[in-house]
Design a protein that fits this description.
The complex is a heterodimer. Chain A has 15 helices and 13 strands. By secondary structure, chain A is α/β, with parallel strands linked by helices. Chain A starts with 6 loop residues before the first helix and ends in an 8-residue tail after the last helix. About 2% of the residues of chain A have low confidence. Chain B is of the alpha+beta class. In chain B, strand 3 and strand 4 form a beta hairpin. Classes of the chains: A alpha/beta, B alpha+beta. Chains A and B meet through strand 5, helix 9 and strand 8 of A and strand 4 and strand 5 of B.
């Protein structure tokens, strides 16, 4: 425990020190605080930068990703020079530049049921900024078991949600949402997109709540779900109540479980699954069909704005949502190959066609991204 | 008529609208009117057995219907029904 600030620190934090809500006592609380950030991406970037600047003494970073050029539209802690670097290294560099007086601990591992309790128990507060349901439930359950507040936020396109879970007798993530959605029903940011400035606003709500919890000032965002709609520029607040069966102690979370299984996702994400049935076709095989002059229809079921980014010349665009009412544009007896960005939507489209009596329908595995990798590297990827 | 606010991920199933006004004096009736008008919404809101999915919460004004009368919760003109699905994005 530090009981004093150095002369340099006093100069650095002077705008805090002259505020009665922070002052010397508050700044020392910040200095002695330990906060774990799960993810150093869209949400983690502003949280990490501002908490570093504010003088939070120990910041843990959990992330095993490397910086990709498509991250830079929103993950402002990383720069162009950092592409290809480990995110924790790139984040540390930025944070150390902002504030050399703090300690940064890097965990370059995926958070799992095996390591979560050991990592999280070293901290006073967790800020969850991950991008998937299994980790969301894992972080929640570990925080419930350890009694550590979880400052939560999530984002999608131009909407955000934020709240504080597991503080004192307050509700947890499972009080809000008992179960995850089945895979495929809720699109991720990678599939659905995210407005670059959105995680800035939502991440700073998270950072604000972290600072308030450390200082013990203000009304924490506990038992309240803050919804932010950037397009409407509206904030709304809904009540979150604790599960009535959890008086005193959580009745749901007893131990950490297999969260991949709980969320119904396959354990290993195969980058490009080989065709597993006669109804699948690889991009290379589709290319051979085109080059050989085969008579078949190639249908792109992505959205028009995706088609604008890149397309396969032969493909006819029919967005998945329009497919049911545009079936008459396709010949039931023709050979048809469906494709989308990565193969998920086109698999649904194939099912839809078969249910409508089409028999010779195949799905191009890996979508146009695989086409770009295997057939036409000149195509931009998104 | 109560107003239903449609969250971003579900707007694609409601002709891209962010809100609709529907008939109904209970939440259940209002949601039925919504899925009748927009059938694609149904599988995203309800299980095959007709139960509201557990990753979708429904609020009347700011209160979760699980803590009111669930689908029998009364709604009137001027009430806002919010559908709030869980989202996990963070990167």
């Amino acid at each position: 425990m530090s009981a004093t600030l150095s002369k340099e620190e006093i100069g650095r934090y002077s705008r805090h020190l002259i505020m009665p809500e922070v002052g010397m006592d508050g700044q020392l609380k910040l200095k002695n605080a330990r906060v774990l950030l799960i993810g150093t991406g869209g949400l983690g970037a502003p949280v990490a930068m501002y908490l570093a600047a504010a003088g939070v003494g120990k910041l843990g970073l959990v992330d095993f990703d490397t910086v990709d050029v498509s991250n830079l539209q929103r993950q402002v802690i990383h720069g162009t020079k950092d592409v290809g670097k480990k995110k924790v290294d790139s984040a540390e560099e930025t944070m150390k530049d902002i504030n050399p007086f703090i300690e940064i601990v890097k965990y370059e591992v995926p958070l799992t049921s095996a390591n979560a309790l050991d990592i999280i128990r070293e901290y006073d507060i967790v800020a969850d900024g991950t991008d998937n349901f299994p980790t969301r439930f894992l972080v929640n359950d570990a925080c419930v078991l350890l009694g550590i507040p979880n400052v939560y936020a999530s984002i999608f396109r131009f909407e955000g949600q934020a709240t504080v879970f597991c503080k004192d007798e307050g509700p947890c993530y499972r009080c809000l949402y008992p179960e995850p959605p089945p895979p495929g029903l809720v699109p991720s940011c990678a599939e659905g997109g995210v407005l670059g400035i959105l995680p800035g606003v939502v991440g700073l709500i998270q950072a604000t709540e972290v600072i308030k919890l450390i200082l013990g000032e203000g009304q924490p965002l506990q038992g309240r779900l803050m919804l932010y709609d950037a397009l409407a520029m509206k904030f709304r607040e809904l009540k979150i109540r604790r599960n009535p069966e959890c008086s005193g102690k959580c009745s749901v979370v007893k131990e950490l479980i297999d969260y991949q299984q709980f969320c119904g996702v396959p354990h290993e994400e195969a980058p490009l699954p080989a065709p597993v049935s006669s109804t699948d076709i690889t991009p290379q095989e589709v290319k051979q069909l085109i080059d050989g002059g085969a008579d078949f229809t190639l249908v792109d079921v992505r959205e028009p704005h995706e088609y604008q980014i890149c397309k396969i010349d032969k493909a006819k665009l029919i967005p998945l949502g329009d497919l049911p009412k545009r079936l008459d544009e396709l010949d039931k007896n023709a050979d048809i190959v469906m494709h989308c960005k990565m193969g998920g939507r086109s698999a649904k489209a194939c099912d839809l066609l078969r249910a409508s009596g089409f028999t010779r329908v195949r799905n191009m595995t890996g979508g146009i991204l695989a086409w770009a990798d295997k057939v036409d590297p000149s195509l931009p990827k998104y | 008529m109560p107003k239903i606010l449609i969250p971003t991920p579900l707007r694609q199933f409601a002709d891209k609208k962010d809100a609709v006004e529907v008939a109904g004096v209970t939440v259940g009736e209002a949601l039925s009117a919504l899925t009748a008008a927009h059938p694609d919404m149904k599988k995203n809101l309800f299980t095959d057995e007709g139960k509201l999915r557990s990753f979708v919460n429904v609020y009347v004004n700011d209160e979760d219907i699980r803590f009111l009368e669930k689908d029998k919760t009364a709604v009137a003109a001027g009430d806002t029904i919010s559908i709030v699905p869980s989202i996990a994005g963070g990167k």
